[in-house]
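Sample A.
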Amino acid sequence: MTNGTTVNTAPAHAGAVSAPAAPKTVFAAIDIGASSGRVMLGRVSPSTGVSLETIHRFPNGVIELDGGLRWDFDALFAEVLKGLAAAASVARGNGERVVSIGIDTWAVDYGLVNDAGELTSVPFSYRDERSRAAVERVHAVISPEKLYAVTGLQYLQFNTLYQLAAEPNVDGVQALLIPDLIAFLLTGERRTEATNASTTGLFDAVAGEWAAEFLDALSLPRDIFPPLIQPGETVGTLLPSILEQTGLPADTRVVAVGSHDTASAVAAVPASQEDFAYISSGTWSLVGVELPHPVLTEASRTANFTNERGVDGTIRYLRNVGGLWLLSECQRAWAAEGYTQALTALLESAAALPAGGPQINADDPSFTAPDNMPDRIRAAVRNTGAVLADRPAAVVRCIMDSLAAGYARTLADAERLTGRSTGVVHIVGGGSQNRLLCQLTAEAAGKRVVAGPVEATALGNVLVQARAAGVVTGGLAELRALAGAGTELVRYEPALLRDPV
């Protein structure tokens, strides 16, 4: 099924990057997704690119608490501190110095912090259903058309504005998005990083500021969010208590990066041409193109595309598509039943099945919450009038076919809505390792697929820090060249582009 070929990239733009700073400089990246997190050390060389070392991995997930699905944030922050302490120790042992920390996580969720700097409750997860009831109340005072014309944000029932509308009381508190909340606990400084602010539904896509008219319409305080900060700017230095717990140098800075993990991932897409599309493939899949300006048309709204900020003021024009959450939830369900076949073997069995099998709408909201995913997928197939075999390989092939088809449809829509054609699709993140998914995407889209790097999010995080520290200079083209330098990229050709035998 796969025909991927490996290509070693070279630092094509090395001449456009400044000379390195002190060789002992290293950067810490806190990179947390919806199911796991890690703390990494990044070492940046303008001549050879970026090397990453994973220092500490830890699980993340929702818990049922006080009648809702929430994040175990105390445990999450304790793991962050453990990872930073380990990073400081490793750096010292190597004669290195951690000069800054960057934080990226998933979007939309937040913690409410009072004037004393205390969390008033455990942060809710976007997978909780509480915001569903608030959607109608929000749309009663701000129409979906008006929301999109200002924010350019795709409709998702868990967007931050619907979550805030579901809060019983926001007097005397501020909402800190998850990466901003971690930065606050590290530094005592309250800021909202712009790429993540653009996912709230309360951010003006053109002005690049909070949409005050929407805050007023929803009776939210004008200062419900802290002031905005851009990627590359300094949030602050570490609090004394954090220094004591981690052993980091006293002047270690927390630097804003693309704190929405997709913003960091897109900043590290190793594209050497402008007409590229990207798929950040992980728990969710983010599929789109990079633009200089938002697309705020009614056609864009009805197609449910979003305009989110990227590094250096770019626009990530994309749509959320279902992701590998479907596969991981199936694996979890099968493991509970005693079936523990390795993922590699599962994918090989799925690849051996014939094409043209049943598909589902992988981004249907019914798949958002955790449950028995194999049963739900089979039920969704039955609703289409087809039948899906009960064996795991058939379910996995259905997921892969459905994701690839969803990617191809979304890419075609992005080209139609922007008037741009794309010549290559870059898949980054965990999904770039899935050879079956990459090949099926190439076939479904009819485009060359370049897979890698897997660690695009951490690479983007570290590169923005390195530029802020003066270790490298240049724009996104230079950062992307460094992200690709030394990285093994795998290319997949659709049948229509392959040379005839």
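Sample B, a different protein:
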Amino acid sequence: MGGIAALAKSLGYKVTGSDRNVYPPMSTQLTQLGIELTEGYDLSQFTPEPDIVVIGNAMARGNPAVEYVLDRNLPYISGPQWLLEHLLKDRWVMAIAGTHGKTSTTSMLAWIMEDAGLAPGFLIGGVPENFGISARIGKSPFFVIEADEYDSAFFDKRSKFVHYRPRTLVLNNLEFDHADIFENLDAIKRQFHHCVRTVPSNGLVLAQAAEPNIESVLEMGCWSDKQYAGKAKKAEWQTNPVKSDCSVFDVLHHHKVVGQVSWSLIGEHNMHNALMAIAAAHHGGVTINDAIIALSTFKNVKRRMEIKGVVKGITVYDDFAHHPTAIQTTLNGLRNKIGNQKIIAVLEPRSNTMRMGVHKNELSQSWQLADEVHLLEPKQLAWSMDEIVENSEAPVSVYQTVDGIVDTLANSLNAGDHVLIMSNGGFDSIHAKLLTRLENS
């Protein structure tokens, strides 16, 4: 929604907005754009009366702002529908879908297109360091967008990406998530199928090979060209790591090495994301060599293994991981980079799916590469954390407050330790609190 607000501002609209909890980096970006923010849902923000209200999918009936809009019959629309009508309908949309890696892959593709001189528009659910902003209109037909499967609004339960009508569609992976809106995995597959249905026959669906859930989506019907990326033999696009941390890897096209990426990122997941971005850019006319050159200068997205500070030899990272698979791959990438140095994982299981306990059995297995784990127990948790503590091989401590975690870590960390903090929210500014304590200790 912050990115949509930025795009609307660029189109010349006067934009204001509200949210319950506005925090950086998005709050900073919006303020810099001159977009007025309201903390909470004060109804005075509707004076003067707006021409249209774009309602985010986190808003539900009972919200005072929503009720005000409905009671007064104000024009309203979902964010994805607004995007389609005002920006996407005449563009070559390049959409990145999947349970994991959407933000990173979208950022990589946008940077490849930019470095190739194509000046794409983009909308990304994060702030890519190469651009410093999460959205822009662009100066070419190309528009790169993070294609989220979450629902569009309380009045439109279709996935957001159904509105985007991509010409290039990347299907990175597919697992069960968003248990608050999807009954089961098949319900998510159906939405992915609906997105595939919108790709024109002269478009491209780029899918991860050897991914059974993606394959079953395509078996429901696909009317476009298909290409595969990954380890399976049928994949037109493949990679081969040259270094174990995947900071250097070969790119293969039709089983022939066509170039080598050497970049600042680590992890097998990022290597795969890069391959998808290269293949998608190739569909848009960028040569493989130019894409590889662009990735050598790619800077990761904020909150993706972002180093927040190094104090007294202790490195503190911020990462958006909140699903067991993402937690495991993030830890794997860090472990391959630092070897036997100590990793302290700090996790806030705050997503609706986590709170419901859907992934609780997988959670204790996801952090086994960490030397120790510190968990913040969310309020209104539908299950007990005691069971995952018992099932974990790595030592786990559970806390009721962020300050409790900071107190423990400040008194136990040593030079050479790596603190990996993972959450899809603000985590009560734990990174800044920890770094300050370390500096003052």
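Observation for Sample B: The domain at 306-440 is CATH 3.90.190.20 (Protein-Tyrosine Phosphatase; Chain A).
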